[in-house]
Each structure stands twice: as structure tokens, then as C-alpha cells.
Amino acid sequence: MKSQEIRQKFLNFFEERGHMVVPSAPIVLKDDPTLMFNNSGMAQFKEYFLGNAKPKSNRITDTQKCLRVSGKHNDLEEVGIDTYHHTMFEMLGNWSFGDYFKKEAINWAWELLTEVYNIPKDILYVTVFEGSEEENVPFDQEAYDIWSTLIGKDRILMGNKKDNFWEMGDQGPCGPCTEIHVDIRSAEEKAKIAGRELVNGDHPQVVEIWNNVFMEFNRKADGSLEKLPAQHVDTGMGFERLCMVLQGVQSNYDTDVFSPLIAKVSELTGGKYTMKAKDDEEEKINIAIRVIVDHVRAVAFAIADGQLPSNNGAGYVIRRILRRAIRYAFTFLDKKEPFIYELVEVLSTQMGAFFPEITSQKELVKNVIKEEETSFLRTLEQGLHLLDNVIKQTEGKVVSGVKAFELYDTFGFPIDLTALILREKGYELDEAGFDAAMLEQKTRSRAASEVSTDDWTVLVSGNVEQFVGYDQLENEVKITRYRKIDSKKDGKLFQIVLDSTPFYPEGGGQVGDTGVLVSANDTIQVIDTKKENNLILHIVRELPANVEGTLVAKVDVEARKQSMANHSATHLLHQALRTILGTHVEQKGSLVAPTHLRFDFSHFSKVTEEELAQVEAFVNDRIHDHLPLVERRSIPMAQAIAEGAMALFGEKYGDEVRAIKFGESMELCGGTHVGNTSDIWQFKIVSEGAVAAGIRRIEAITNKAARQFYAEQEDTLKELKAVLKNPQDTLKAVVSLQDENAKLKKQVEQLLKEKAKNLKGDLKGQIQEVNGISFLAVEVDLDAAGAKDLAYELGNEFSNLYVLLGSVANDKPMLTCYVSKDIVESKGLNAGTIVRELGKHIQGGGGGQAFFATAGGKNPAGMADAIAHAKDYLK
């Protein structure tokens, strides 16, 4: 059975049983501050389990892209080493929100596996929760009794809290679970040891394929459990493992999920993948290929969903995954050129039907991966040179772990590659020193980001919260719940939820509102507003004296006005770019703040000055056309798209959406906007540049910031005119000044050359004969060009010359070294080496060729020492 059919049969099965089929949420989470990535099928449904929102159906089924490379669920280091862990994997799931429970979930799971997929019953085992006195949760008798009607009791195993009590984090919904495991070993192996002995034992052919979680509890901040108001079912089946079972192979990587990618890697690298490696060398190649085909899926889908590789946050995780794949190819497949980007075409063919984003974003994904490969391969090459230097400076055969950590931390050079190279050269790595340096860094990082969160204090139960900030910026409110959070970074803060808030929470690129909560006795500053699990959180440093009283919520009107202007301008900018540069342009990220806007977009080349001028004019024309806002707050998604609204990849939309229209610009957007484009006042681009391969960034200002910009430009022009004695034509005066300056520079250059010639005659008499070499070391009053000319002039008259000239210009010292080419070889003198060493005296450095080099510094007082030590190289 092909993987596409396996996936479809699952969705069809649950759709026939009243489940709504929903698409996968983006792999990168943008509205959940507790998670970087969707790490499980249930992540996109957290708000339903928490009771903060009502699902569109009480029964849902889907296949969810998941990524487990950070936090509690982190499988990265196992990936490639074994055959069943992955960074990105698909989680097939069926969900019940307060509807059916254990009986239906277990019976349907068994029916699907044994009657639809026809998996033999005698290779299946199940586990149920054995109970926990510590948690005061009893043995799951109900699940056990249901399973007893379906499978022999000898195949029902007890599972402990670690294996059979599922939690999504340190706090939140949780509950006992029942897992289904499959034993696909050979008959001979089964005869030696029963499968029940290997369940949850990390055996590659006795693996869990399906987990049915029964959400009954909420884990509180103090670790205690409380009953949820409703019982839910949260299930997840590993798609790749299911394919392994149904396709009769012994490894996920032998299924058609991975085999086309493996074939392409073999074609591109010459590395042959074998189902059973004969020796260590073959296994190393196998591991490398598994790492590459797994990692390219994670990286490609993350980029397609809008997350570019970067140096922090989620972007850093994606970069780290890709670099791990590049490093394995570099080390074990001897691949020194980019090639991983070519696998994206295979991914698109394989998965585009179910995940259309990988096809529509294919060229962007390829370009970004290729640039990352090229960049990291350069880093590896640089790291090899740096490692050579570390080895040269090492006394004995043990290389400092601290030095190795510097290579890893500063240059991204992988520690396992360092260890491998050292072994090949007969050295050892001080692993304890490296581990200590790594632990110190992690401890610092963890301490800086550590956050503790108290439980909610609920004052008003039920889902009474609503956002009214599209229509008003001030209203009477009551607090429905609050909690304390404590972080090393920000100290003690409180999160407040209001019954009816005008504060816009950070989202869609727009920053959260600030403002105040006012009562008769208090004025509480709201320093930020965020959204988490469908709750709008108002961040404050202190609580009102009376948390149950009535407050007046007041948004900072001026900041909101500026944000609105900037947000509306991004829509017009998007339209302008697609009109002028082409419809290939798509938004890839944005920041909308009161002070400025930032807009990232897909485009293959630098935007020219002429194109930027056209874009700016296009936006300003729409501003001056006084286009009114046409807002549709609740329109069916399909209708909005049919009417021409633009949706952004990587965003999660519901069935009902909000559409914003200014003239011909129409986008799906939850942000706040001006009532008329004239409120933007003026749009001014301040910069344009590259973010990544195929991604450009424009930064711009509007309204108040634009007024300030033009006022500053006018002030600068006035100051310039005053300096130029108020000429009638300022531009003509500047051009005239430049021409005059150019003429004077030429005259100065000529005078310096003549000065150098005159100086040459004086210096020739100071040249000494030392060990058969004509030697001169002296400080001269010349600039860099003059010192170079003088050195070459002297070199033309002496065939065995070594000269060091020191000079100081604008309080910056410089050394110029010339060595005749014939004595470079015969005497082993090297100008580059000499200036690097002598440059230390002037607190600087430099380099160049063996016969000519220069060094700059910042300590003129060290010049005399540098010149005094020049003769040391003649001993």
C-alpha cells in the first residue's frame, strides 16, 4: 500500500464516523509563546482542550506536520542513528472535544488497524496506565476492560507514568493513555524472545504506532491535578511507522516516504544506501543519508511555512538542523558542494498533493537551502584552517576543550567533526573541558530565559472574553482571570485577562497595544498585550488594588494610530511590489510598530533605485486617493479567496475570516487599520536589502515618523546651506566644492610623491648591511600611499632589501614592510609574517604578500618598539 493511500484511508475512516477533516496547521507556531514548533498533533487544538474556545466540530481528524527538535520533546540526536526517530514527522490524529471517549476511541483504532489496514492481530500489543499513587490516579480499569474484548490479556501490558500518562508540558491538560505497539520481527527472532518483553524497550522493530490519550486532568503550577470540566480524546499515530508496517519493511527509511529521497541522495553524492550494512563504513554512509533525507523535510517545510534560518529562536533551530545534514554529507559522503536543495523537487512531487505549500513555495525553499549550504561549507573550510592553528598551538596530544568550544560557539564548527579530525591526526579532544564550557553556556542561557508561571486565578468562569478594539480604544472592563509570571529577564509580572478589551494583542506582525487600566484608586500601566491559547493577555507589573472591581481600559491612542498607519501601508506596499516587480512577490514576514514598518518579501534580485521610487510613488498615490477602508469581519474563507483576497502562507485561518480592502488591495488580516488611506499621510522607504536567498526586506515609515524624517532633512539642508554661505544653488555649490577638493587631492598626492623622492635620498644613506641583507627600519612622515611608493622606490635600487617603514596618520599607526623577492626565497623572510608579529606592538595586525605587507594599529606609542624589533628577523 502506497503512503498516499495509507494517509487517505485514515482520513476517510474517521470522516465516515462524523469527523471533520481539517488541514495541517503550519509547522512553525506564531501565536503560542510556549512552543516554537508544532510538536504534536494536538498543539493546534490546545485552546479547545483548555476550554478557551469552541471547536468548529466536536470530532476532528487530520494529518499534522510535527517537529521535535527542542524543549521537552527533542529527538534530534537519535535521528539517523536509529531507523524510527525523525525531526519532522506526520501525526495522523482523531480528536473528540467532550464527545466520545475511551470506548469509541479504542474500538475504532482496533477496527482501522486490523480490518481496514489488515494488520495481523498477533503482532500487536497494547499498554494501559497502571496507575500512580503519587498522582492519586488509579489503574485505567476501563481501558483494560475494553481491550480485553478485543485482544488476549497476555497482550495487554501495564505502562508506568513515563510511558502511559501524557502531558503537553509542565502545566496544562493531561491524562492516561493507551498505546498500540507492533512487532514486525522475523519468526526466528520472535521465537527467541516474546514481543511483550521488548515493548517500550527502544527496539527498532517493536515500536509504538498509535497513542490514544484520554484528557481528563489539568496539571496545575504546584504539580497537582484537577479534573477538567469535560473529557477529551487526543490520538496520534506515527505515519512513517505505519507505512513501515504496511509496506512490510524493517525501517521507516525503507518505505516510499523516504526511498525516493534516498535514491536522489545516492545519485547526487555517489553514496550507496544499504538496507543492512556489512561494516562500520557502510553504516556511517547509511546514517549520513538517513540524516540528510530526514532533515531536508523538516527544513523545507519550515521554510515553506515562513520560518527562515537565522541566528536566534526558531530560525536558529532550523539552521542547526540543516547544518547537521550538511556536516554529515561533508564528513561521510565527501560532498563539498551544495546539493541538498535539489531534494526539494522530490519532496514537492511526493507530498505536494496533501501539503500544497511545498509546491507553491518550492523555488524559495530551494534558494534558501542552497544559500545556507554554500555559507556553511565556507564556515567548515574556515573552521578546518582554524583547527589547524589550534593543533599547532597545542603542546602534547590533547587539544583544549575550551578551544574546541570556541570553534563550535563562535564559528559553528561541529564538535564531532573536530573530534574526528583530531583522531585522524593522532590527537585527543579534552571532552570534559568542552562539556564544562557547554554546560556553563547552557546554564547562563537557561537562567536568562527561565520563566515560572502560576495557575490562573479565575474570577469569572466561562468564555466571556471578547476583543472590541476595532471599534473603540476605551471601555469599562472587569478582570476575568489573572496569574503571576516570574522571569530572570523581566522580573515579576502579571498577566490579566479582561472580559471586553480594546487592547490589540501582538499578531500578524503588529506589536501589541500598550496603555493603562484605570480605577478610582489605581492607574496600572499595560506594557504589552499578547495572545495565548485564544486568551488576550495584558502584561502589567502590578495588579489593581481591587481585582474584582470595574476598570477603564485605555489604549495608548497615539501609538495605536501610528501602528494602524503602518499596518495599512504594508498592504499597499504588498500591492505595489506585486504590481511593479511581478506577481511572484509574496509577503514572507512583517513587523508593524508605532515607529516604523518592516516588510519581507520573495524576490530574486536587489530592488533598483528606480523600482523603489516607483513603489514609493505607487503607495503614495493610493494614500492621496483617499481610499476608504472596506472591512469584512466575518466572511467565509472560500468566498474571500474567490473575491481576490490574499492569504499568507504559514498563517492559520479559520472558516470565517476578516478581509481588509483599500481600493484594489484586499488581504486577509486580523490587524488594526486606518479608516482612510489619507490617514497614513505619507509613505517613505528608508532601506532595502537582502534577508536570505530570494528574500528581500524593505523598511519604511509613515505619518508622524515621516513628518519627523522630512523635518530632519529640511534642517540638514538649512545647516548645509549655512556652511556653504547660503548659495543660490546648493547642489551646484556642493559639486563645485567636490571638484575643488579633487584638484587639491591630486596636488597633495603629487607633493607627497616628491616628498618621498626627496626622502629616499636621505634614507639611502641610513641603509645598513646585516648578514648580507640591506636593512632599513625607520619612522617617516608619510601617508599609506606615500610609504608604499617610497618602499618600492628603494626596492628598485637594492636587490637584497628588507625595509620597515613606520608612519602615523590621524593618530593611527601603520607599518609598511618590503622584502626583495630574491631574498624572500633565499633568506626565508616574509613581509606578511613580519607585520603580523610587529603589529602587536601597535595593538594591531595586518598582512599581505611575502614581498609586501602592511599592518594598522591603534597605539602610536608602540611604534618605536616595532621598529626596534624589525632587526630581530635577520638573526
- The oligomeric status of these chains comes to single chain
Question: What class do helices, strands and sheet pairing give?
Answer: alpha+beta
CATH class of the largest domain, anyone?
Answer: Alpha Beta
Estimate what percentage of residues fall within beta strands: 25-35%
How many helix segments? Answer: 25
Shape: globular
Structural domain tally: 6
Q: Can you tell me the CATH superfamily of the largest domain?
A: Bira Bifunctional Protein, Domain 2
Largest sheet: 9 strands, mixed
Kindly provide the radius of gyration, computed on alpha-carbon positions and rounded to a whole number of angstroms: 34 Å
What portion of residues is helical?
Answer: 25-40%
Spatial separation of the terminal alpha carbons = 80 Å
Parts with pLDDT < 50 across at least 5 consecutive residues: 70-74
Q: What is the arithmetic mean of pLDDT?
A: 90
Q: What is the number of E strands? A: 36
- CATH-assigned fold name of the largest domain: BirA Bifunctional Protein, domain 2
So, CATH architecture of the largest domain?
2-Layer Sandwich
Family: Belongs to the class-II aminoacyl-tRNA synthetase family.
Main location: cytoplasm
GO molecular function: alanine-tRNA ligase activity; aminoacyl-tRNA deacylase activity; ATP binding; tRNA binding; zinc ion binding
Organism: Myroides albus
